[in-house]
Amino acid sequence: MDNLLWIAMAGAKENFNSLNVRTNNLANANTTGFKAEFENSRAMSVFGNAYPTRAFAMAEVPGYNFDGGAMQTTGRTLDIALQGDGFIAVRDTDGNEAYTRFGNLEIGSDGVLRTSTGLDVLDEDGNQIVLPAPLAEININNDGYITGKPAGADSTTVETYQRIKLVNPELRSVEKGYDGLFRSRDGAQLAQDQTVEVQSGMLEASNVNPVEELTSLIRIQRQYEMQTKMMQTAGELDDAQNRLLSYN
Predict the structure, then answer these.
(1) 173-198: average pLDDT
(2) Residue 14 backbone dihedrals phi, psi, to 5 degrees
(3) Is 50 helix (H, G, I), strand (E, B) or coil?
(4) Count of other CB atoms within 10 angstroms of residue 182
C-alpha cells in the first residue's frame, strides 16, 4: 500500500502549492499592473540507485500571463501605463535593477521619483530620477521623458529632465520574483528600448480573471479531498491485509 499512500500524500502536498499560486492571483486582482501566474501539476519519477518505480506529484509555475490589463483613466500626470509590451525599470529593496508594470508614481520630499510602494524609478542610465522642487507642472511624455515647469517660471518655460528607463525583453528571458517584480534570468541589466511607449494619466489594471481563479480554487480543493480519501483507503487496505495475515 506504500505506493498508493506515497502518491496520494505527494499529490495532497502539491495541492497546497497550487493553492498558494491561485490565492496569490486572486489577492492581487486589484493590484495595478499585476501579471497572473499559471500553475501546473505533473508526475515526477523518483530516481536513485534502484529502478525508478516510485513517482510523486509536482506543482510548478510554468509561466506568467503577460496579457495586458484594462486601462483605467486617472487624469493624474504621474500615473503611467505602458502601451503594449514592456516594463518600467526600478530599484528593488536590495538595490538591484528590476522591472514592473506598476505605473503609480510619486515624487518624494527629496525630489526622487518613486513608485507609490517606495521603489526608485530608474533613468536610461540606471540612475535615480531626481527632479527639482517645487514644480508647477510635470508631464511624462510617450517616450518616457519627464518635462515640467519650475514654480515661478514663465508660462512658456518647459524644461526636460531625465528619461524613464523602459525595456522590452523576450518574455521567456525574464522571471517573476516573490516580490512581484520581474528580473532577467541571467541577472543582466536590460537595455533601454526605444519602441516602448507610455500613456500618462492612466494605469493598467491587473490581468487576473477572478472567475477563473475561483473556479481553479474549487478544482484544487476537490483534488485535495480526493487525495485524502485515497490516503484513507490505503490505510483501510493496509488494515485488511494485516488482518488476513494474522489469520495465518
Answers:
(1) 93
(2) -70, -25
(3) coil
(4) 22
